[in-house]
Amino acid sequence: MTTTFPEGFLWGGATAANQIEGAYNEGGKGLSIQDVMPKGITEIPTEGPTPENLKQVAIDFYHRYAEDIALFADMGFKVFRFSIAWSRIFPLGDEETPSAEGLAFYSRVLDELEKHGIEPLVTISHYETPLHLARKYNGWTNRELIGFYERYCSALFEHFGGRVKYWLTFNEINSVIHEPFMSGGIPTPKDQLTKQDLYQAIHHELVASARASKLARELMPGAQVGCMILALPTYPLTPDPSDVVAAMLTAQDSYAFGDIHCRGEYPGYLLRYFRDNGIELEITAQDREDLKNTVDFVSFSYYMSICETADPAKKTKGPGNIMGGVPNPTLKASEWGWQIDPQGLRVALNDYWDRWQKPLFIVENGLGAVDKLVEVDGEKTVVDDYRIGYLNDHLVQAREAVADGVQLMGYTSWGCIDLVSASTAQMSKRYGFIYVDRNDDGTGSMERYPKKSYGWYKEVIATNGASLTD
């Protein structure tokens, strides 16, 4: 008997406010760090918003959300993962009261989702710390941000608590190690940021995340709160035991975030890292109590795996290895150099399930590629068989993990509609089932066209994965 996905499996897609909404200066919104990142992580931030920043308009979801949600509903989405822009709710981040206009916008989005029977999965903070908090307080290095974040969560939970069951605290929280400005709102240049300050910022985020879990249980007894980490299975480059240890140490960089969220305390290997590097964190007794508020489930993104080696002569970095690591010589890569490893998803799922025994949720997975709009039977579309192949192969491995006994809640494909890339701020790096007619130079009609993968995913959802091909 072929194992299928569980009954009630949450099929859908995922996005982020800064990559789809646009309307950066409408509806009372304040500036976020994304408004000064016109080239993503590839260049240093600007002083203020610049016209070449595609995120200022993005794909105009702010005005077109009803049209887009209708397309998601036509595909059969059970769930839609989106983020709330912190600076729409608290324009500066440190105000006492939330913006009524910002809350009203997300209420309208929830109205549309409810109309179509789509469950919302809300990311509270997705790479868009209010710019004021970054510049005035030095981002998450400052303990005051815990209180600001808690106030923000209170506003969301009080206004939307009865309408949103699934919440994620911070997107890819472990990415702060490599991208402190985008992930932690820390404006200090990476090469000048001390490990002491970086891990103090990480500590503040972890405490804030735990407080959000506590607050959610108080205000929304039926809700579930998950952490969200960037999954990066790490293989030794060779069977040399030194490479195995190198891979173990790199894997621990990411494990730590899940371990703390799931177990409520710092793991021994991280405490050793602090000792070895002279890091002495300010951790209060209240912090330790707060951290015991563990998550209900673990969500993660999965795009690639990496290798590690202890041999300095072999430490080459691939173009897509944003989070470090060595390219795997046995794997092919995407157009952006991200190595394609479907079996790595099964490895990650088994690894996380065995380690944490918490329900898992794949909330990002997809292929960024250059798509070509063509005409087929008089309709504009994209014949994206390469994307279908990628997603099919990953979902087959997710199904294998379910057969292995992993408790998997759902799957939301990243960038279910074309959006502005986070890492490069390009439109040409497309992930969606829906083509959006917008180009890297800002031109385009913004029209939406379903791709071939749209119909394919619709069938996958309708059959609960039975249409997948081995």
From TrEMBL:
<dbReference type="InterPro" id="IPR017853">
    <property type="entry name" value="GH"/>
</dbReference>
<keyword id="KW-0378">Hydrolase</keyword>
<comment type="similarity">
    <text>Belongs to the glycosyl hydrolase 1 family.</text>
</comment>
<protein>
    <submittedName>
        <fullName>6-phospho-beta-glucosidase</fullName>
    </submittedName>
</protein>
<keyword id="KW-0326">Glycosidase</keyword>
<feature type="active site" description="Nucleophile">
    <location>
        <position position="364"/>
    </location>
</feature>
<dbReference type="InterPro" id="IPR001360">
    <property type="entry name" value="Glyco_hydro_1"/>
</dbReference>
<dbReference type="Pfam" id="PF00232">
    <property type="entry name" value="Glyco_hydro_1"/>
</dbReference>
<dbReference type="InterPro" id="IPR018120">
    <property type="entry name" value="Glyco_hydro_1_AS"/>
</dbReference>
<dbReference type="InterPro" id="IPR033132">
    <property type="entry name" value="GH_1_N_CS"/>
</dbReference>
